[in-house]
Write a structure and sequence with these properties.
With about 350 residues, the protein is of the alpha/beta class. It contains 14 helices and 8 strands. β3 (about 75-80), α3 (about 85-90) and β4 (about 95-100) form a beta-alpha-beta unit. The structure holds phosphoenolpyruvate and manganese (II) ion.
């Protein structure tokens, strides 16, 4: 019985969708032969944005998948979106279930799935919801834990947004990092395929997740990616998948050598001091902003003079290069400081 913690990194790969017995078998056998894959994946029921697209083969594909499990000796994983899917997947010996991004958003569905899985010891992975709602993601995990499903993990597949964006689903790494803080010890797998939406960036996103100490990867692979019936532009051939997996450098999370520990302690001490100074300065700045609020209030002047703000932003960000800070970062920080100053002044002006 596979556990999500049985290996780090856990590498899951297979086609977005099981299409035909030949396509599924050829893809999975080729992946197994590379020796770089721990678990095979395939979508049996596909949640499609619009009707009329290929919606998956259903139970027949589970029979093909079960045969492949026997032939390769590798565990198999699929997405479940309702109780019937759970029942069929377990009946055909699926080893790992995952809840897709469109299902995680719906507490009714997640509860139905949790109740259907209850009592079996199958591992379950929960993809982040489509929208960047961290509590919804946590809530889905808690629904599984609450019915006694213990082998639970997370899949970070990015978050959708309106219009054309660089990534198919923006990674918003900070959300996954916060989830790992909240769910201490729970494995986090990266799904670069659905983050990128293309083949070109898979390596870069996978490496970034390894650098953030993720516990594994789930990457789509297809024997003939360009002809795939779903997600053609992001799938890679089994041999490209193997090259990709071999190229990722997984670093240790810890190192007990005294030199390392000493060097890190020293630098962290400096960071702690600087963080303290940053907070002191912010506190002083906000206190001055409050005094400005009083002066403006007493003289009946509005809070925002946008040309003054424009001048500050311009003058400070022009120093970015010299300070070796990115201009984007400076703008974000200064914007936040400015918004807080406005809030403080607003409170002072409107205090009854
Ligand atoms: C998938 O893994 O094929 C899938 C449908 O993913 P997501 O739920 O992340 O869109
Ligand atoms: Mn897909």
């Amino acid at each position: 019985m596979i556990s999500l913690k049985s290996k780090k990194p856990l590498i899951i790969s297979g086609p977005c969708s099981a299409e035909t017995q030949e396509q599924l078998t050829d893809t999975c056998i080729a992946l197994a032969k590379t020796g770089t894959v721990d678990v095979l994946r395939a979508g049996i029921w596909k949640p499609r944005t619009k009707p009329g697209s290929f919606e998956g083969v259903g139970e027949d594909a589970l029979k093909w998948f079960a045969q492949i499990k026997k032939d390769t000796g590798l565990p198999i994983a699929t997405e479940v979106a309702n109780a019937k899917h759970v029942e069929l997947a377990l009946k055909h010996g699926v080893d790992i279930l995952w809840i897709g991004a469109r299902t995680t958003v719906n507490p009714f569905s997640v509860q139905e799935i949790a109740d259907a899985i209850k009592g079996s010891n199958v591992p379950v992975l929960v993809k982040n919801p489509m929208n960047p709602d961290i509590d919804l993601w946590q809530g889905a995990l808690e629904r599984l834990l609450a019915v006694g499903i213990n082998d639970v993990g997370m899949i970070h597949r990015g978050f959708s947004s309106y219009g054309a964006t660089q990534f198919r689903n923006s990674p918003q790494w900070h959300i996954a990092i916060e989830m790992r803080r909240r769910m201490q010890g729970m494995p986090m797998i990266c799904d670069p395929s659905h983050i990128c939406g293309n083949r070109e960036w898979l390596q870069q996103i996978s490496q970034k997740s390894a650098d953030l100490s993720y516990d594994g990867l789930i990457i789509e692979s297809h024997i003939n990616p360009c002809d795939a019936w779903s997600d053609a532009s992001q799938q890679v051939t089994p041999s490209a998948l193997a090259d990709l997996v071999r190229s990722i450098v997984w670093r240790d999370e810890k190192n007990n050598s005294p030199e390392y520990v000493q060097a890190l302690d020293n630098l962290r001490g400096q960071i702690d001091l600087l963080d303290g100074e940053l907070l002191d300065i912010l506190s002083k700045r906000m206190s001055v902003a409050g005094k400005i609020g009083e002066v403006k209030r007493d003289n009946n002047v509005a809070i925002l003079q946008s040309n003054r703000w424009g001048d500050i932003l311009e003058s400070l960000t022009s120093k970015a290069d010299k300070l070796e800070l990115s201009k984007d970062f400076l703008v974000r920080i200064l914007d936040n400081i400015h918004v807080e100053s406005i809030n403080i002044q607003n409170n002072i002006m409107n205090k009854k």
